[in-house]
Design brief:
The chain is α+β, with helices and mostly antiparallel strands and about 150 residues long. The chain folds into 2 domains: about 80 residues, Arc Repressor Mutant, subunit A (Orthogonal Bundle), CATH 1.10.10.10; about 60 residues, Ferric-uptake regulator, C-terminal dimerisarion domain (Dna Ligase, domain 1, 2-Layer Sandwich), CATH 3.30.1490.190. Helices cover about 45% and strands about 20% of the residues. The strands form 2 sheets. The chain has a 3-stranded mixed beta sheet with strand order 4-3-5. It has a two-stranded antiparallel ribbon with strand order 1-2. Strand 1 and strand 2 form a beta hairpin. Helix 2 packs across helix 3 and helix 3 packs across helix 4. The longest helix is centred in the last third of the chain and has 18 residues. The radius of gyration is 18 Å and the shape is flat.
Length: about 150
Amino acid sequence: MHQRYSRLIKKDNKLTSARYEILDILISSTLHQTAAEIYQKLRDLSHKRGIATVYRTLELFESLNIVEVLMKDHTKYFKIVNPNHQNHIHFICSVCKRIIEYDDPEILEFNRKLKEYITHLYCHQITEHLSLTGICNNCMALDKKEGN
């Protein structure tokens, strides 16, 4: 049984068919997805689930640390937690809204040192990933191609 399925059961939560379907959608994607996108994928697969079921399930998964949540423009984006990929940086394109994860060892080391420095200097406890916003290389190439 997949580790995430067993985590649901260990916490006395039933692995309902709706939870199973949503978990499968999350596991099968490498992208961050909104609740609406997950809901649409359920509908595309002919699963008769309401949007409220998707939101409740994602809240449960968040509380069990099954998904990581990234906030962008007052919208939550969900992605399955990869236990081997805890220390990473997000880049969010302000044009296409694509979310890119950086996991280059040098960047991760810089991120670790930055967190340590801020924690030491300001006595803050950092609980979220570092997120950078800008324009991705695809959007810049499109802009250049269109002559802007």
